[in-house]
Amino acid sequence: MPADAPSVPDLRIRSVNGAPERPDGEFVVHWMTAFRRLGWNFSLDRAVDWAVRLGKPLVILEALRLDYPWASDRFHDFVLGGMADNLERAGSHPVLYYPYVERAPGAGRGLLEALASRAVVVVTDDYPGFFHPNMIAAAGRRMDTRLEAVDSNGLLPLRATERVFARAVDFRRYLQKALPPHLHELPQEDSLARTDVPAAGPGLLAEVRRRWPAADRHELTDRSLLLASLDIDHSVGVAPMQGGAAQAERRWRDFLEEDLSGYAEGRNDPDSDASSRLSPYLHFGHLSSHQVFADLARRELWTPMDIAPVARGQRSGWWGMSQEAEAFLDQIVTWRELGYNMSAHGDRSSRFESLPDWARRTIDEHRSDPRPFVYTLEEFETARTHDEIWNAAQRQLVREGRIHNYLRMLWGKKIFEWSETPEEALHTMFVLNDKYALDGRDPNSDSGIFWCLGRYDRAWGPERPVFGKIRFMSSENTRRKLRLKGYLEAFGPA
DNA sequence: ATCGGCTCGCGCAA
DNA sequence: TGCGCGAAGCCGAT
Q1: Which stretches within A91-201 are classed as H helix?
Q2: Which nucleotides of C are covered by protein (CB under 7 A)?
């Protein structure tokens, strides 16, 4: 790659199929699958680099299939909202933004290959979770054009280390040593700002676009008819939270300007729902943690010189920012990227066997303890347990696609306690979280769900039935700690 | 309201 | 070898 182009760090670029680029191809393809935004995006920067270097137009394909696991009105709507934003923003640039929505099962088959067969190179997003690694590998086998996957997941490149970490403090200590050089590596705020990309003419790909028509602005903006026409799960309704980079930006600004000031204390006060509510935007790639970091640093008047000389994995004081900024960075950098690291490098990272030894041991010792209650997946899903707090949390998940951050822990702990086996509990948690949570199907879902069974945690006494030495939580105590009246009314039985 | 004990593993100082 | 401490807890004693 050219020395004069804005550099995407080599560590973040991976050749999927080992094929060479084709300099006589007609255009560069950016296949947008995970980082669904037009700025703060190393993956798109890389595609722009190619286009500039070889003097070829840029085609951005953002596709949405019908048959991905858990496809529903809820997730489709979120992604389509993002496409509407990207279409709007790309309109002022000389690129071909091509939003493709599959209308009938299998209709989209062949589209990527049709583009790839004429492309110089295809650049896509290297996301370590859900079906993405398999999809990327399969796409690489189906094309003889060079396919590159680029890591724009977080501040630390996924390939910076092969190690996996058993506890947040270990990863934090590692980050405090390894992260500083990477903090200078930022993607472009506006990947399409460079004017030296050759224009994509209006006739480009006309015949491809006749066979696989792009979604138009109107149906992406006003989505109910489109959603209703698709063969997806309509029982999981559109969530109150709107998807897309524009909404993500708005929520981030609001959080930064209004909610962050109470963040350090707010999180320790279980009464307030002090979460940033950015996780759906981060999950769908509508928001970048690089932007979050850059904006935060600017607000804090921070420079790398402020970093403390001691690096012992301490939770606060290392960055040299305000308490609330450091508390937030611990979430969005340490904890978020801990999960990504595990997803990218952890053997069997989503399996029971990946739990720490002490946790597996104690869970096994209590495997045959009688459960105080046992519910089926269907009873859990329809919020028919004996516990009104648990039922309310489940109803919030079904209706809004999220759960209050404290209750989310209780929700998982109780599914563990009220299932026949830990494996069945895991299955229930993953099904419900994957199906309903806007931020589900993410490496951080693994972290959150497995935390309930001891991952990243330590043993706690006294030893109890079912839990053994796994940290225990109870609805009775939750009732004492949280003011739940409003919540229980809002999420009472329908 | 606050405190200690419950319990495990790891890095680091000694 | 021992010490300190860690995502969010619980419970009983004070």
Answers
A1: 111-116, 132-141, 168-178
A2: 6-11
